[in-house]
Amino acid sequence: MTAVLVATGGSLMVVIPLGAMAAELGNVSIWVWIFTAAVGGAQCLLIAELASRFPERAGGTAQFAYRVRPQGSPTMGALSAWCYWFAWTPGIAVNLILAATFLRDQWLPGASPVLLALGIAAVLYFVTALGLKLTTVINAVLALVAVAVVLVVVLSPVLRPHSSDLSQVFPSVLPADSGAKDGLWDQLALIAKWSFVATWSSYAAEMASTVCAEIRNPERTMMRVMSTSAIICFVAFAAVPIAMFALSGAEGIQEDPFEVFANAGNLLLGPTGEILVQLGLTAVLILGAETFIIGSSRTIYQMAQDGHLPPVFGKINKRGAPAGSIVWDAIVIGLLLVVFGTNVVDVVAAANFGYMAVFVLLPIAYLVLRKHPAGRPGSIRLGRYARPLAIVLCAVNAVLLVFGGAQWGGSVMLIGLSVTLVIVPISYFTRRQRAKASSAERKESEVAS
Question: Which residues contact 432 (CB under 8 A, 6 or more apart)?
Answer without folding.
Answer: none
